[in-house]
Amino acid sequence: MRALEPIYQPMLLAGAPADADRVIEVRNPFSGALVGTVPQAEPRQIRAAFKAAARFRPKLSRRERSDILLGTARAIASDQDRLAQLITAETGLCLRDSLHETRRACDVWSFAAHALIQNDGEIYPGDIGGNPHQRRIFSMRTPLAGVIAAITPFNHPLNLVSHKLAPAIATNNRVVLKPSEQTPLTALALGRILREQGLPEGMLSIVTGTPHDLGDCVFTDEDAELVTFTGSVRVGHQIAERAGYRRLVLELGGNDPFIVLADADVDRAAHLAVQGAVRHSGQRCTAVKRALVVEELADHFAERALHHMRQLSTGDPSDPSVDLGTVISEDAAQLIARRVAGAVAAGARLLLGGEPRGAFCPPTLLDHVSPACELVAEETFGPVLPIIRCNNDVDEIVMMANATKFGLSAAICSNRLDHVTRLIEGLAVGSVNVWEVPGYRTELTPFGGIKQSGLGHKEGILEAMRSFTQVKTYSLPWPV
Ligand SMILES: NC(=O)c1ccc[n+]([C@@H]2O[C@H](COP(=O)([O-])OP(=O)(O)OC[C@H]3O[C@@H](n4cnc5c(N)ncnc54)[C@H](O)[C@@H]3O)[C@@H](O)[C@H]2O)c1
C-alpha cells in the first residue's frame, strides 16, 4: 500500500486550530517513516483551553446532541478506510485490527446517540416513611459544573478517545482531551469530524504534547472537575496522588487470565486463547496475558495453540492480509523480549518466538511458565501467550488467577456450570467471559477493573454518562 504523505495537524483549542513553537513527530513503528507532526503544547495553552471551556455553557438540546453523535458515527463509517490507514501508520497495528477499531468507534457514537434519548430521571414517593409527606421527589442528571479532563493511551487511538468524547457530548459537557503523544493524529482527525458535525467550539479542545513537557497541568487545572484517565497503572496512580479534590475515573492496566478447565474443547480454547493474546498485537488492556491450563490438557492445548499461532501472517501492517502488526515501539518490543528471556531462564519452554525486529515482536508461545516471572506477574503488552500449568482444582485456580495486583477481566473455557459459577463468583475482576476472550464487550455495557486496574467506576456508554453528570433532586407537593 502507498505510504501516506506526512501531515501536520494543529491542535484544537476551543474548536479552533492552534499551533505551538515546537512540534512532536509521530513515526510509523513498522517503517520508521514520518507519519506527521503535531504541536507540543505549552502549559499556558492548556490553561487557555480549560478557561475557554469553563466560560462556555453548552445548551444543545437532546435532539441536537443526538444529531451530532449520529453524524459522527456516519462520518467515521464513510471514512473508515482512511482512518484505519492512519491508525495503522501511527500504531503499527495491522489494518485488520484498525478497521475493527473503526467499527467499534461507530458503535460508541451511535449507542451514545440512542442512550441520550432515554429519560435518565427517577421519581420517588414521599409518603413512605414514618413521617409521610404528600410530596414526590424527582431526580434529574445535569452536566458537570466544571470541565472534564480526559487523557487517553496509545493502544486504541480512535475507540478510547470516542469513549471519552461521546458520553461527554451526550451529556452536554465540555472536555479538554490530551491523547497519547504516540498517537495524536487519529484523535485530531476525530476532532475535525466533530467540528464538521457542528459541535460548538467551546465544548472540545484537543491538546497535544508529551507528559514530560506538560507535567501535571492537564489533570490539576483549577477548572478540571473530573479527570477521566485510561492508561497504565503507574501513571494512573501518579494522577490519583496528585489530582487533589476532584472526581477520578481510572481505567488502568490488566493481567487477564484465560482459564481452561478439564472438560474444555481443547482446540476451541486454544484458538480463542491465541486470538485473545495476539489480536491488536496483544496490546489490549484485556488481552490474554496468562493461560491457566489444567495439567492433564496442557500438552494438547500447547500443541493446538502452536498450530493456531503458526497460521498468523505477519509483515507490513498496512497489507490487508496481515494478521499481526508491530507493537508501539522498538523499546516496547525489547522489553517484551527481555521478559520472555527471563521466563525461559526461570524454566519456561519457548515453543514459538524469536528476536524482535525493530518494533515487530514475533508471535510468542511459552509453556511451563512460572507465575512468579515478570512476564506474567507484570502486564506484558505484546503478542505473547504464556501457559501456566495448574492442578485440576477450581479453588486453587481461583487463587492463582487472583494472585495479581490487577483485576480487569478474565475468560473461562468450560461447560461445567458448577465450575463456571464458582469462578464467576470467585474471580476478583470487573468482567468475566465464558467461551470468549476476556475483552469481549459491547460499547454500551459497563466495563472497568478493580484492585489496581481501576477504582471500580465503569466505562461503557451508559456508565460513562452517569459518571459525567451529577444527580440533582427536586420535590414537589403531591396531594393525593
Ligand atoms: N482499563 C482500560 O480500559 C484500558 C484500556 C486501554 C489501555 N489501558 C492500559 O493503558 C496502557 C497502555 O497505554 P499507554 O502506554 O499509552 O499508557 P500510559 O499510562 O503510558 O499513557 C497514557 C496516557 O497518559 C499520559 N501520561 C504518561 N505519563 C504521564 C504523566 N506522568 N502525567 C500525565 N500523563 C501522563 C500519556 O501521554 C498518555 O496520554 C496499558 O497499561 C493498558 O492496559 C487500559
TrEMBL record:
Binding-site list for NAD(+): 152-154, 178-181, 232, 379
Domain of life: Bacteria
Record keyword NAD present: yes
Catalytic-site annotation from UniProt: 251, 251 (proton donor/acceptor), 285 (nucleophile)
Keywords: NAD, Oxidoreductase
Gene3D superfamilies: Aldehyde Dehydrogenase, Chain A, domain 1 (3.40.605.10), Aldehyde Dehydrogenase, Chain A, domain 2 (3.40.309.10)
Spans traversing the lipid bilayer: none
Domain Aldehyde dehydrogenase: 22-473
Pfam families reported for this sequence: Aldedh
GO molecular function, one term: lactaldehyde dehydrogenase (NAD+) activity
Family: Belongs to the aldehyde dehydrogenase family.
The protein's name: Aldehyde dehydrogenase
Taxonomic lineage from the root: Bacteria, Pseudomonadati, Pseudomonadota, Alphaproteobacteria, Hyphomicrobiales
